[in-house]
Write a structure and sequence with these properties.
alpha+beta; 8-stranded mixed sheet; 7-stranded mixed sheet; binds flavin-adenine dinucleotide
Length: about 450
Amino acid sequence: MKYDVIIIGAGPGGIFSAYELIRRNEKLKIAVFESGYPLEKRRCPIDGKKVKSCIKCPVCAIMSGFGGAGAFSDGKYNITNDFGGTLYEHIGREEALGLMRYVDEINRTHGGGDTKMYSTAGTQFKKVCLQNKLKLLDASVRHLGTDINYIVLEKLYEELKDKIEFHFQSSVEEIRAADQGYRVISGGQGYECGKCIISVGRSGSKWMETVCKSLGIETKSNRVDIGVRVELPAVVFSHLTDELYESKIVYRTEKFEDNVRTFCMNPYGIVVNENTNGIITVNGHSYEGEDKRTENTNFALLVAKHFSEPFKDSNGYGESIARLSNMLGGGVIVQRFGDLVRGRRTNEKRLEESTVVPTLAATPGDLSLVLPKRILDGIIEMVYALDKIAPGTANDDTLLYGVEVKFYNMEVEIDENLESRYQGLYIIGDGSGVTHSLSHASASGVYVARRITG
Ligand SMILES: Cc1cc2nc3c(=O)[nH]c(=O)nc-3n(C[C@H](O)[C@H](O)[C@H](O)COP(=O)(O)OP(=O)(O)OC[C@H]3O[C@@H](n4cnc5c(N)ncnc54)[C@H](O)[C@@H]3O)c2cc1C
């Protein structure tokens, strides 16, 4: 079987490469190989009754399948070079922003047209933050919400499914250089292609490592972000979230001069479990529809850890901390802020009496037994700093879930075309280590499609 292009992974990177390739040349023969299921068959077995916690499915329905890790996400498409990846280092700032706007246009014409775009331009909160030693990062963000994000994916699939061959439940095992292209092995069978786009995201990181080793592609890995997810009454943050939806705020701690930042803010949202390679961490999302809103807002507070030689396994470090919380709590641990600063464990009784009703059934416990002191001190300082711009953040009943880990894929050596040292072998999206977000991953997909079609 010979294809012009084979795409590995049907997350935003893979979907937007496919979309742009076929838009620019309808005659191209394209196949997409995806480990997970089609969108409508993606079901996490946790139902809160029979299955209460993660049973570690071989292919996680939350992370894999059409739509990738973003399918059930909050669908926040941030248009910025300030965070979400370093695509601009390869393709330039203007090009990166232009592509993110183009992706936004596609989302709008595929069901996202009525959703809102928020922006930090001209906001008074920049000054308020600076007056309190906090820095608000610049961005425009389209909030699709989990519900509309799903609809957009449905429409994109509908448009692509007759023009492109989709192979679901088809993990790619190996890639070999072949005559004038590549041989992709899936299910023991070989498929030939002229060009190959690898877009395997976070869940494909271990596999990506083996591919890079076998093909001699250079990689580096030195960063992991570790922290907690904060949940509090939505009114505490509503003055910020109503205007900006998501505010990315950075604080430099006094004690260690570490940067702590807010990440993935979900107004009126829910806190959820996330399974990465069998390790349970915490995340959050929210819905666009009013009927699905909760009374809480959640966001992560993360501390970036950069390692230098000789230590190389930054993700291994993050995994060990997450494993520790899994060992103590059987999964995610939740603690009241008041209990944390008093040095005591949150138990069922204290949690029941809390004025903040948790949206995730996590195990009450003590995060100080899990998180390294330096990270925990930074988080506590940041909670007090945020309390100055959003009074109530440092209330005793504010809930902290741990641990939230933001793993970074190792960075793969690719050039300004997002092409590896092998001609026609492109590595894009989160799997390349260059992007860490929906908009950057999608933009990288459009970019390589344009490089291929000329
Ligand atoms: C709960 C959650 C919420 C999030 N919320 C947001 C948000 O609001 N905004 C934001 O910007 N980002 C968010 N993110 C991050 C965002 O989802 C990712 O940055 C984005 O999905 C990356 O896209 P990608 O295409 O590079 O990879 P992915 O979306 O991870 O897709 C990769 C695909 O490749 C498949 N794959 C892996 N290995 C193989 C293989 N060997 N063979 C075949 N297929 C393979 C996987 O099954 C997967 O479907 C969230 C992530 C999670 C988990």
